[in-house]
Description:
Layout: E1 3-8, H1 20-23, H2 28-42, E2 45-50, H3 54-63, E3 70-74, H4 83-92, E4 96-100, E5 122-125, H5 129-146
Parallel strand pairs: 1-2, 1-3, 3-4, 4-5
Amino acid sequence: MTRILVLNGPNLNILGRRNPGIYGGKTLPELVQIVSQKAADLGVEVAFYQSNLEGELINSIQGHWGKIQGIIINPGALTHYGYSLKDALIDAAVPVIEVHLGNPYARETWRRHSVIADIALGQIAGFGYRSYTSALDILAAHLQETTP
């Protein structure tokens, strides 16, 4: 069965109370439930991990090596400077989709650069929790099309 790792970076543990105008009103547990249901509908397994620490996200990626076929990541602020996170994603050697709840391109200039984007299949931003479910749809289809 296809298994996808869903990673959430800094401050995503406080979804629901963190600037709902940008990030929406859903909590991280609600987001996990929505994505889990979508995964069940698609017939894929998902594993979730959130940390405010870059090294812990890297440890999670490395701990899943050989056990996953793809990664969906919302790196949070690590989007802009997480080079060691980027290296871990490269080393995982699986397709990656970068997601964001809000639209970083509609915010401050410094938020408009991603160090992850150039190694990702693509980036989905600005659609709230639907950024995750859309990424799951796309990644599951991509894996089905490209896996022998």
